[in-house]
Design brief:
Helices cover 37% and strands 14% of the residues. By secondary structure, it is an alpha/beta fold.
């Protein structure tokens, strides 16, 4: 088509997990929370809906202050956006002047953004055990983007190891994507005050039960936050709508509910790991709300077999991980059904 930009013509878009349009599926494929939002969140969404004739507050001051208190940072060290994907897109557009480096097997949007924005890109293979080898990044000059814990592998790195990378070259930016950190990882947020070349990205989609609301955040020193604010106001100052802002604030004010959901998810993860290992699966140690597993039968075979039985998991058609499945931690009942179904399939 004559109007099509060549960048788009040659782009392989990000492929999201399947969203079934019919009922009856056990949905363990997109790392959503197994639990609904807190009651206070549902109430706040309804109240905010009554004022949708008005534009939302572009500063998101109420949510920023509450989140700053939760993270023990200053409001001017925070940026809020329409999910962490928007924030990552702003980062790729504005903070990659020296190029970008990231793991070959990680969040799929990194490679999409790099190509979309025409960035000089260095893609680093994982170790044989699917862990990230930070020594491979030590001497690089590009901006480094690391998901910690990593997806889809579920493996996390200690904060101290990443800090050594941050300290090695103060003129090089390190972006840490912490979408899953509250399920057992070590956050780098406490170190942002010390390091001007550290930026941490987080999301309300996983541990805060707000995947459908689209709210994410970045934590960094004010100079980096100002760059993201400039990007936002050059794109859409109202990218976070009023209902989402209200939901985010209410979620932060429902911390007991948040903690209980985390505990339930981690307990179910432990049970599921043990149950799958008894079936002969290799299960990587997880610091996330999902498991990355390799069974006696390839994931390429198990994925459609489970889908036929109305259980959705995620399979990646990549040579290094084509035998694996990524399985979101659902409720205990859902995971028991999954295990029973896999047992039947394998037998």
């Amino acid at each position: 088509m004559k109007f099509l930009d060549s960048r788009i013509a040659n782009l392989d878009p990000y492929v999201p997990g399947e969203q079934p349009q019919t009922s009856g599926f056990i949905k363990l494929n997109t790392n959503e929370s197994a639990y609904p939002p807190a009651p206070k969140v549902v109430e706040a969404a309804g109240q905010a809906a009554g004022n949708l004739q008005l534009y939302p507050d572009p500063t998101l001051s109420n949510v920023s202050q509450e989140l700053a208190d939760y993270l023990a940072v200053e409001p001017d060290q925070l940026f809020l956006g329409n999910g962490s994907d928007e924030i990552l897109a702003f980062c790729f557009q504005s903070l990659m002047g020296q190029g970008v480096a990231f793991p070959k097997i990680s969040y799929g949007f990194y490679s999409v953004f790099a190509k979309l924005y025409g960035l000089t890109t260095r893609v680093i293979p994982l170790n044989a055990d699917l862990s990230i080898n930070l020594a491979d990044y030590q001497d690089l000059t590009e901006t480094i983007v690391i998901a910690n814990p990593n997806a889809p592998t579920s493996l996390g790195l200690p904060a101290e190891a990443i800090l050594q990378l941050v300290q090695a070259q103060p003129e090089r930016l390190v972006i840490v994507d912490e979408a899953y950190v509250e399920f057992g990882g070590e956050s780098l947020v406490p170190y942002v005050k010390e390091y001007a070349n550290l930026l941490v990205v987080g999301t309300f989609s996983k541990s805060w039960q707000l995947a459908g609301a689209r709210l994410g955040y970045a934590v960094a020193q004010p100079a980096l936050i100002e760059i993201l604010q400039r990007m936002k106001y050059s794109f859409n100052p109202y990218s976070v709508n009023s209902m989402t802002a209200a939901c985010g604030l209410a979620a932060l004010q429902s911390r007991d509910y948040h903690e209980n959901c985390l505990k339930e998810t981690i307990a179910t993860r432990t049970w599921s790991k043990e149950a799958l290992e008894k079936l002969g699966f290799e299960v990587l140690n997880s610091q996330t709300n999902f498991l990355f597993v390799k069974g006696p039968v390839s994931g390429a075979i198990l994925y459609p077999a489970l889908k036929e039985r109305k259980i959705l998991v995620r399979w990646f058609n990549q040579p290094e991980i084509k035998d694996y499945l990524r399985i979101t931690i659902g409720t205990r009942s859902q995971m028991e059904t999954l295990v029973a179904t896999l047992k039947e399939l394998l037998s």
